[in-house]
Automatic annotation (TrEMBL):
It catalyses: (S)-2,3,4,5-tetrahydrodipicolinate + NAD(+) + H2O = (2S,4S)-4-hydroxy-2,3,4,5-tetrahydrodipicolinate + NADH + H(+); (S)-2,3,4,5-tetrahydrodipicolinate + NADP(+) + H2O = (2S,4S)-4-hydroxy-2,3,4,5-tetrahydrodipicolinate + NADPH + H(+). GO terms for molecular function: 4-hydroxy-tetrahydrodipicolinate reductase; NAD binding; NADP binding; oxidoreductase activity, acting on CH or CH2 groups, NAD or NADP as acceptor. Homotetramer. It comes from the Bacteria. Residues 129-262 form the Dihydrodipicolinate reductase C-terminal domain. Its main location: cytoplasm. NADP(+) binds at K40. It holds the Pfam family DapB_C. Belongs to the DapB family. This is 4-hydroxy-tetrahydrodipicolinate reductase. The lineage of its organism: Bacteria, Bacillati, Bacillota, Bacilli, Lactobacillales. Residues 2-125 form the Dihydrodipicolinate reductase N-terminal domain. One of its GO terms (cellular component) is cytosol. It is found in: Cytoplasm.
Length: 262
């Protein structure tokens, strides 16, 4: 049984992940962590009243010897310290939380290497999103003018999404940086052309009713291509999380992208 701690257990993703772990025959939930929660045990929450799982409020309280995998679905402000703690205590992080800066990822990878601990940072655990990013990188070889529209629920803290940023980074690996649109254009309303990543524009939609969706738009002479993925429910991320948890124990570095484990 893989012994798992879920950080962010009361959040939208954390709650979904706790349910997945509890229902997975190969996983054991040995702890949950949220510095803002008041519960001392998960059984203080009605739906989990039959369980006996410690709820930690401070990193220093966590019985690290009992934890093999740290699943993190917290916040952009919290994730770096959480993952650093896990790696330094030889716990393999499976990180869904987005908003880490490139330098923070590099620093965490150095810590993972020093401690010989495997882990994964995945901006998106949904297979439709992983495929979208792969297809987009392929398409950009032939259609290098790209704009990305990501659409999420209106409670999301970061923009653009980690998935959109990762899509742009993957495309940038094979696309030479160039300006898109009229170089003399004026934004009559600041921000009208969206965020700019090496010339690619990224647009973030935040609306109630949405969960997680992304469109990658390509334009070329006389033609266009749109690739789209939709996550209608947070259950769409769970098979990817389960794959990562099952495989991470064999890794000895901090990987970025679920595709590294598929
Ligand atoms: N990779 C993927 O496939 C996916 C990634 N995500 C990402 O996951 C993250 C969480 O999303 P979502 O669940 O919607 O957000 P929520 O705000 O619903 O959940 C985050 C939870 O983490 C808690 N939290 C805050 N700080 C800490 C901390 N230091 N340690 C532990 N828990 C903490 C929050 O508590 P409080 O509210 O009290 O601050 C909250 O309960 C986001 O970064 C999002 O982009 C989301 C979906 C899929
Ligand atoms: O906040 C979310 O909900 C999601 N965040 C991730 C991101 O920022 O890409 C993954 C998915 O889009 C859902």
């Amino acid at each position: 049984m893989v012994k798992i701690l879920v950080a962010g257990f009361k959040g939208r993703m954390g709650h979904t992940t706790v349910e997945m772990v509890l229902n997975h025959p190969g996983f054991e939930l040995v702890g949950v962590y949220d510095p803002h929660s008041i519960e001392k045990n998960l059984n203080e929450i009605n739906e989990f009243s039959e369980l006996d799982v410690p709820a930690y409020h401070q990193l220093s309280d966590i019985a690290t010897g009992k934890v093999e995998v740290w699943i993190d679905f917290t916040s952009p402000k919290a994730v770096f310290e959480n993952v650093k703690f896990a790696l330094e205590h030889h716990i393999s992080p499976v990180v869904g939380t987005t908003g880490l800066k490139d330098e923070q990822v590099a620093q965490l990878q150095r810590i993972a290497k020093k401690n010989q601990v495997g882990g994964l940072i995945a901006p998106n655990f949904g297979i439709s999103a992983v495929l979208l990013m792969q297809f987009a990188k392929q398409a950009a070889k032939y259609l290098p003018d790209v704009e990305i529209i990501e659409m999420h629920h209106d409670k999301k803290l970061d923009a653009p999404s980690g998935t959109a940023l990762n899509t742009a980074k993957m495309i940038a690996e094979i696309r030479s940086e160039h300006y898109q649109g009229n170089p003399d254009e004026t934004e009559v309303l600041p921000g009208a052309r969206g965020a700019n990543f090496q010339g690619m524009r990224i647009h973030s939609v935040r609306l109630p009713g949405y969960v997680a969706h992304e469109q990658v738009l390509f334009g070329g002479p006389g033609e266009a291509l749109t690739i789209r993925q939709d996550s209608f429910d947070r259950s769409s991320f769970m098979s990817g999380v389960a794959v990562a948890v099952s495989k991470i124990g064999k890794q000895h570095e901090l990987l970025v992208g679920l595709e590294n484990l598929l």
